[in-house]
């Protein structure tokens, strides 16, 4: 079964639309949505409705820290723009949409795959997998062969052999990677709606569970429209639009 791994949508309708279309053109048979559907962007209601519909069709959907903050109130440790975006987003969603976000699980296991927003060792704490140390801690916390998580906004792949040898590398888009069966793997597909590696194209990954092949994808989308939508949304911090615009400049 080929599944699309999508994380950190952040209410970016333009990016998510482009990724969904690209994934379907690749013949995906399922979706795994790894959290942070809201926050920062201007279309939280539309994005949440898409996630809800995909989940109703059998997709994996786990909660991210922004999702829970919108459903339950912002975390005081969030920076000011993020907190302001959370409060704005809460006012854009219906009670049913807020309830859906608040009821999402922190993690889900299907066969030998673990799906979680931040990490496997403390899903509720939302600590970042910033390097090999946190990745190995995450892999040691689960018996699943494959762990898929988001939160970091940049694509990355980690692995752990049966003898305890660890490795990592930064993948290149579109190149299939065979995930060897004698290792554990931690896959971070990158951010769909808020990529932060200097490339403005939306990130996601394709995983074929039958063959064990993984490929990281970059999908161009209308960044200018997403920037304009944030600027036009009364109440969203202007800095959030400028951050997306800056990624566009860096990517040229």
TrEMBL record:
Q: Which Pfam families match?
A: Metallophos_2 (PF12850)
InterPro entries membership? Ap4A_hydrolase, Calcineurin-like_PHP_lpxH, Metallo-depent_PP-like, Pesterase_MJ0912
Family assignment from sequence similarity: Belongs to the metallophosphoesterase superfamily. YfcE family.
**GO MF assignments:** phosphatase activity
This one is known as Putative phosphoesterase
Question: Can you cite an annotated GO cellular component?
Answer: cytoplasm
Highest taxon above the source species: Bacteria
């Amino acid at each position: 079964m080929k599944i699309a791994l999508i994380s950190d949508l952040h209410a970016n309708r333009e990016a998510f639309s482009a990724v969904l279309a690209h994934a379907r053109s690749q013949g995906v048979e399922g979706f795994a949505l790894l959290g942070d559907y809201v926050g920062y962007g201007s279309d939280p209601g539309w994005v949440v409705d898409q996630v809800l519909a995909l989940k109703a069709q059998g997709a994996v959907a786990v909660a991210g820290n922004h999702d829970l903050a919108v459903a339950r109130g912002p975390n005081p440790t969030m920076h000011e723009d993020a907190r302001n975006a959370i409060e704005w987003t809460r006012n854009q969603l219906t009670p049913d949409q807020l309830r859906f976000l608040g009821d999402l699980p922190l993690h889900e296991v299907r066969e030998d795959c673990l799906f979680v927003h931040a990490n496997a060792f403390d899903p509720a704490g939302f600590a970042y997998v910033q390097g090999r140390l946190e990745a190995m801690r995450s892999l040691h916390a689960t018996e699943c062969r494959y762990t898929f998580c988001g939160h970091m906004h940049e694509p990355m792949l980690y692995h752990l052999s049966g003898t305890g040898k660890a490795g990592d590398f930064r993948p290149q888009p579109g190149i299939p990677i065979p995930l060897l069966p004698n290792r554990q793997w931690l896959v971070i597909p990158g951010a769909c709606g808020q990529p932060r590696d200097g490339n403005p194209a939306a990130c996601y990954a394709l995983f074929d569970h039958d063959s064990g092949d993984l490929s990281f994808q970059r999908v161009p989308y209308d960044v200018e429209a997403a920037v304009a939508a944030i600027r036009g949304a009364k109440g969203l911090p202007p800095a959030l639009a400028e951050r997306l615009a800056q990624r566009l400049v860096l990517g040229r």
